[in-house]
Design a protein that fits this description.
Blueprint (H helix, E strand, L loop, with lengths): L1 E5 L1 H4 L16 H17 L4 E3 L7 H9 L8 E6 L1 E3 L11 E3 L3 H11 L6 E6 L12 H14 L2 E5 L5 H9 L2 E2 L2 E2 L3 E5 L11 H6 L3 E5 L17 H14 L3 H12 L4 E4 L4 H7 L9 H8 L5 H9 L5
Parallel strand pairs: 1-2, 1-12, 2-3, 3-6, 6-7, 7-10, 10-11, 11-12
Antiparallel strand pairs: 4-5, 8-9
Helix pairs in contact: 2-3, 8-9
């Protein structure tokens, strides 16, 4: 399975996750050095796909600085536009990011992101939605088509929310000068929210790049007393983890990888130890019966996203 590294947890000290631990009193330079170390260790462990965004705090800057130490054309960078990080690394901030899908924001953030070339492969609308109207906005779509042609980029979207499938269907219909615009789709998919399965075959048939994010359901796949309604899921995941001598995280990632075998799985690891555990997904293979058993734990997308909305930044 191809595992990529998402950098949200490396670029800002808070993220929506029920298990992430950030050392108290850690200064920004120490935090940055830790992130740099994780990038370097990921590379040494064979990771070549790195996903970042302006909305991830200092992540773009961090990845760019790290990239300048490498001379390897196999490294692929994906970044996004549309969110601005505004928490200023304040652990007490009430607002962490602001969405804006305007042409002005595209121009502003492209001026920074273009520095990733020639490693930049995927350029995405961050959390594209029907509400912002970005998929109908020719003032944005035409410039994106220009960037695609001019720099040989894959233009993509990331999706969030219970209507992910509707957003993907809408995006597949977007054309500029008679050509489909979007090539890559970064989508939340895991044992709880399997809605991507409704359209994954079509994406594969159209040879679109599928990138899976939040494969660990923001930490909800790990046993937690606050989510006692997942007790049976926890038991099954722990049974399989014991059987294959890996962590629950590797089981969850393997489920995603085997059910969508052409996809890239994003690790959200905040340290090297977590990344090493994630990479153990390549040491075993779940049986067909085990995949079917795990698939039974899916829940309604509306329920999934309502529960996710109550998770805290930590």
């Amino acid at each position: 399975m191809q595992l990529g590294l998402g950098t949200a947890a490396l670029g800002r000290p808070q993220y929506i996750n029920v298990r992430q631990e950030v050392p108290e009193g850690q200064d920004l330079e120490t935090f940055k050095a830790q992130g740099f170390s994780v990038l370097e260790n990921a590379y040494n462990l064979g990771v070549r796909y790195f996903d970042t965004a302006p909305g991830y705090g200092l992540a773009e800057q961090l990845v760019l600085e790290w990239l300048q130490t490498k001379n390897d054309p196999s490294i692929q960078i994906a970044t996004k536009w549309g969110y601005t990080y505004v928490a200023n690394f304040d652990i007490n901030a009430t607002i962490h990011e602001i969405k804006e899908h305007s042409i002005e924001k595209l121009k502003e953030q492209w001026e920074v992101s273009k520095a990733f070339m020639p490693h930049l492969r995927v350029y995405q609308i961050h959390s594209a939605s029907l509400e912002t109207g970005v998929l109908d906005n020719e003032a944005v779509l035409i410039p994106l088509a220009f960037l695609k042609k001019e720099h040989k980029l894959e233009i993509g979207i990331t999706t969030t929310g219970d209507n992910q499938v509707d957003v993907i269907k809408k995006a597949l219909d977007v054309t500029v000068d008679g050509q489909q615009l979007f090539d890559a789709f970064q989508v939340t998919y895991n044992m709880l929210d399997q809605s991507l399965g409704k359209i994954s075959r079509e994406l594969v048939q159209q040879e679109k790049r599928i990138i899976i994010k939040e494969a660990l359901a923001n930490g909800r796949v790990f046993r937690n007393k606050a989510y006692s309604h997942y007790i049976n899921l926890y038991g099954e995941l722990e049974r399989l983890a014991y059987k294959y001598k890996v962590g629950v995280d590797a089981i969850a990632l393997q489920f995603c990888g085997q059910t969508l075998p052409t996809s890239i799985l994003l690790s959200g690891a905040s340290n090297t130890a977590q990344l090493q555990e994630n990479l153990k997904l390549n040491t075993f293979h779940l049986s067909e019966d085990e995949i079917l058993e795990l698939a039974l734990f899916k829940i309604d997308p509306i329920t999934y996203w309502k529960e996710r909305s109550h998770l805290k930044w930590n």
